[in-house]
Amino acid sequence: MRMAFWLPVVSLWRRELVRFARDRNRLFGAIGQPLVFWLLLGAGFEKSFAPQGIASGYLEYIYPGILLLILLFTAIFSTISVIEDRREGFMQSVLVAPVSRIGLVLGKVLGGGTLAFLESLIFLVFLIFLDIPISIASLGLTLIFLAVMGIALTALGFAIAWQASSTAGFHAVMNLLLFPMWVLSGAFFPAEGASRWLAYLMAINPLTYGMDGLRQSLYLTTSGANTHLWFCAIISVAFAALTLSAAVWQVYRIKN
Amino acid sequence: MEAAIYVENVSHKFGGRIALDSITLQVMPGEMYGLLGPNGSGKTTLFRMLCTMLPPDHGRIRLMDKNASASAVRANIGVVFQHPSLDARLTVLENLRHQGHLYGLKGRPLSQRIEELLDMMTLTDRAKDRVEVLSGGLQRRVELCKSLLHHPEVLIFDEPCTGLDPGARRRFWDDLDILRRTYGTTLVLTTHFIEEAERCDRIGILDRGRLIAEGSPEELKRTVGREVITLETRDPKGLQLQIEKIVRRDSQIIDGQVRIACDKGQQLLAQLYPLLQEKVQAMTLSVPTLEDVFVQRTGHGFQVEDL
Questions:
Q1: Which whole-number Å values give the CA distances from B305 to B37, B93, B160, B300, in the listed order?
Q2: Please, what is the Cα angle at A21 between A80 and A96, to 5 degrees?
Q3: Claim: this prediction has a pTM higher than 0.95
Q4: Is it true that domain B5-220 has CATH number 3.40.50.300?
Q5: B interface residues, A as partner, C-beta within 8 Å
Q6: Residue ranges per structural domain of chain B
Q7: What is the DSSP letter of B209?
């Protein structure tokens, strides 16, 4: 029974990786744009941006934000195919096979999540240009946050894509929901300097806690662990569980 | 004999529109059953129900015994969709392996089964090619292999020949013959091509969500009469009245032509011959086709679009 559940999951997961490896454009697409963002924004705001309590420049401030952006972009790239796959493509045959709906979601989301994680690892190399002291503990915790957020964002993308009737509709949601969620996660500017209503929006944005957790993990060596870090970890894992459930619920719900 | 598929009093609505209206039919084991109908007749809705993707609002569909779960049913059917369900970036072999995994097949037994099917469909030398480089006809054959991996008892097709050139179509039908001889699989297919329906053992004709006729193609054609006369005219209404006066027969106007179903066509043709000069551009005498069956039962032409 256990075997029968995991065999299709692993197969779906592997398909995502093989497809990705065969598509060079995607490899560079998901990392190229954030890299350009990072360099332009970082250099552009370097002198004019002085966040409270952070001595470093903007290039360093926005670096963990760009990591999150890479996760978001890869999640979107790997779930956008679901829209057509479900009605007129590959997913049709998965839906009529004796595969549990949970297995279907897990295979696809773990596949996309793995890709997001791997892309963010590539970007992690740029750490050597920044003045952030790294230890095994800080790196390990960073990787855990990247993995959890990668899965959460891919599951979120999946849940949205499954009900989207067209790629254009998905783009609209991306621009109106996903991208603002990233901007309001603290990736771009800290809540402390923002106007009160914006700070409130940032406080209820689940990505804020993933972002904060990622930032704190990177600086673990200098600032140490505190209860807020654990709070961020709990919220992020809960967010991943919630988006995964939403994705499974969508697959059960939509039958036409 | 126990039927392979029971469709019992199935109705379904999409919003306010009735897609299927009290459909009841049975498919026998080993049979090739065709669901014939124009676009919008409900055949694709019925297809989706048969392959467990859409539960009906009312009524029941049974494949196997009545207590079978959806996943038990899924393990026993093979489905070929109208739109390709292959991953174009993967090779033929990768696609088939993945499909096998969905059905719990793996290792040596799976490889053997894939080999056997590729051999049957003469695809062995294309196994390592990516699907995107194959022609439409070859892709269709890979789809067929894919649907057969797990030895399904019932194979369900949606518009199997859409988009295939005539050569690939002929090949597809030959493949189905091989398949039936080898495994005795029960086949159900939807189609809007009359010629495809003619090849089935039995057909059900759908129009606007209703099953308007069912039987073997020969049986159904016999109900129309032995022959059909078609008259081409510019004034179908006037001609219809005249025909009624001359030969006292009912006729139908379909797509601007007047049709008369009859048993002694030659005699009737002789009686109508004088009309040829003034009202009629052409007279045709032919044996009935399934299209005539459709026309007679519905009172309208077959190629109506979704109304």
A1: 11, 40, 20, 11
A2: 50
A3: no
A4: yes
A5: 14, 51-55, 71-72, 74-75, 77, 79, 81, 83-87, 89-90, 94, 97-99, 101-104, 106, 146
A6: 5-220, 226-287
A7: T
Q: What secondary structure does DSSP assign to B124-162, as a single string?
A: GGGTTSBGGGS-HHHHHHHHHHHHHTT--SEEEEESTTT
Q: What is the SS3 assignment for A49-105?
A: CCCCCCCCCHHHHHHHHHHHHHHHHHHHHHHCHHHHHHHHCHHHHHHCCCCCHHHHH
CB B255 within 8 A of CB B301: yes
| One pLDDT digit (tens) per residue for chain B, 307 residues | 788 999 999 999 998 899 999 999 999 999 999 999 998 899 999 999 999 889 899 999 998 776 677 888 999 999 999 999 999 999 999 999 999 999 999 999 999 999 999 999 999 999 999 999 999 999 999 999 999 999 999 999 999 888 888 888 899 999 999 989 999 999 999 999 988 999 999 999 999 999 999 999 999 998 888 888 988 988 888 888 888 888 888 888 888 888 888 888 888 888 888 877 778 888 889 888 898 899 888 888 887 444 4
CATH, domain range B226-287: 3.30.70.100
**Tally of helices (H runs) and strands (E runs) in chain A:** 13, 0
Nearest residue of A to residue B102, measured between CA atoms: A8
Q: Which two structure tokens, joined as six digits, stand for B45?
A: 């809705």
Could you tell me which of B273, B246, B270, B249 has the C-alpha nearest to residue B259?
B249
A252: closest chain B residue by CA: B53
Residue B304 near residue B192 (C-beta atoms within 8 A): no
Q: What is the ipTM of this complex?
A: 0.88
Residues in chain B: 307
Domain residue spans of chain A: 2-253
* Count of A-B CB contacts under 8 Å: 70
Angle between helices A206-218 and A227-253 (to 10 degrees): 140
Which residues of chain A have a Cβ shorter than 8 Å from any chain B Cβ?
3-4, 7-8, 10-12, 15, 18-19, 22-23, 87-100, 255-256
Residue ranges of E strands in chain A: none
Separation CA B102–CA B95 (nearest Å)? 11
Biggest CA-to-CA distance, chain B: 76
